[in-house]
Specification:
The protein has one helix at about 25-40; strands at about 50-55, 60-70, 75-85, 90-95, 100-105. It is α+β, with helices and mostly antiparallel strands. The longest helix is centred in the first third of the chain and has 16 residues, at about 25-40. It is globular.
Length: about 110
């Protein structure tokens, strides 16, 4: 006796959202790129950066975003960290091939 035997519906995968950094974080990243280039570092200006919030799960009061990009000259990484306060200062660090090449602090 078979009653109500239909195949289980295939679950629809939920797409993973693409992280979008706040505008002020992207602005701090762009500021760092400009400052590094003014200091003689050839950081890509028109790159399409991949963003990721890399703040440790249990850390409270400070957030860090990481931006990555690869081109013919290697891999690039920019971190932007800031305290969770009104009008924070942004710590910007730029790495090429995992070597720190520039860092600075953007004030609000």
């Amino acid at each position: 006796l078979l009653l109500g035997c239909s195949p289980k519906p295939t679950p629809t995968p939920t797409p993973t959202p693409i992280p979008v950094p706040p505008d002020d974080v992207a602005s701090a990243r762009d500021w760092g790129i400009t400052q590094a280039n003014l200091a003689g570092k050839a950081v890509p200006m028109n790159a399409v950066w991949t963003a990721q919030n890399i703040t440790p799960e249990n850390l409270v009061g400070y957030t860090t975003w990481q931006f990555t990009y690869s081109d013919q000259s290697g891999s690039w990484r920019i971190t932007v960290g800031f305290p969770i306060v009104l009008n924070p200062n942004y710590d910007v660090k730029i790495y090429q091939n995992n070597v720190s090449i520039w860092e600075g602090q953007k004030t609000s």
